[in-house]
Write a structure and sequence with these properties.
Blueprint (H helix, E strand, L loop, with lengths): L8 E7 L13 H20 L4 E8 L14 E4 L5 H15 L4 E4 L9 H11 L4 E5 L6 E6 L13 H7 L3 E2 L6 H4 L5 H7 L6 H8 L21
Parallel strand pairs: 1-2, 1-4, 2-3, 5-7
Antiparallel strand pairs: 4-6, 5-6
Helix pairs in contact: 1-7
């Protein structure tokens, strides 16, 4: 465990082409794009408001998607055709160039329950380790991944990324307080689950514009959300 040093954080948020994002959701193309855009804006807004965060860098797959974040006061990097881990590496390099003494945190663009206080708590704990991560709700993937100054993310997002990050020496942050960081939204069931408790402005607006028939069934909740329903 390293000594606690209050360095600032640069948060890197990768965003897939919004035309292709959330392809596993059973929604029409316009609704999918609207939901993906809302999730991105809410995630970036929460990251900007998080204590200890000095920079937010969005890595975009498509230049035209810059319009979705242009008013949020964040930097961006274009990485057309890059895979997720390559995009994060580009974002990390950009962050170190702008803020050479910062820690770097990778954060998915689809965390509907993210709160600045929760992310801030995770980043405060992350200062005690060289690299840390938070697993997703299924305990197989990864949401947050951090690297202290002088260390690289070495991101291994993809199938089984939780185990992959553990194998590379990253320390797992656990506990019920991190539940809002653990639910990333890939499927319609995930979206329906958070709809009654989602309160971020952009997602709430996007959900209000969905066809009411979309909400015709009740999905089961991941265990991590038991206390948040």
């Amino acid at each position: 465990m390293r000594s606690v040093t209050p360095w600032p954080w640069a948060v890197v948020v990768p965003q897939k082409d919004l035309r292709l994002a959330k392809s596993r959701m059973e929604l029409d193309g316009r609704d999918r794009r609207r939901v993906a855009r809302a999730l991105l804006r809410d995630t970036v807004t929460a990251a900007r408001a998080t204590p200890g965060v000095c920079e937010v860098i969005v890595v975009l797959d498509r230049a035209r998607d810059l319009a979705a974040i242009q008013d949020l006061g964040v930097h961006h990097v274009l990485a057309p055709g890059s895979g997720l881990n390559e995009a994060l590496a580009l974002g990390e390099r950009a962050a170190r160039a702008v803020r050479p003494r910062c820690g770097v945190a990778a954060l998915p663009a689809d965390l509907p329950l993210i709160e600045p206080a929760v992310l801030g708590h995770a980043l405060a704990l992350a200062r005690t380790r060289d690299r840390t991560f938070v697993a997703d709700a299924d305990h197989r993937g990864t949401t947050l991944l951090t690297a202290a100054p002088g260390h690289s993310l070495h991101s291994a997002y993809g199938i089984g990324s939780r185990d992959a990050h553990r194998r590379t020496g990253a320390f797992e942050l656990t506990g019920p307080r991190f539940a809002p960081l653990r639910l990333d939204v890939d499927h319609l069931d995930h979206l329906l689950l958070v709809a009654p408790i989602a309160h971020h402005a952009n997602l709430s607006e996007a959900l209000a514009r969905l066809d009411p028939s979309t909400f015709g069934h009740s999905p089961s909740a991941p265990p991590c959300l038991g206390a948040h329903r």
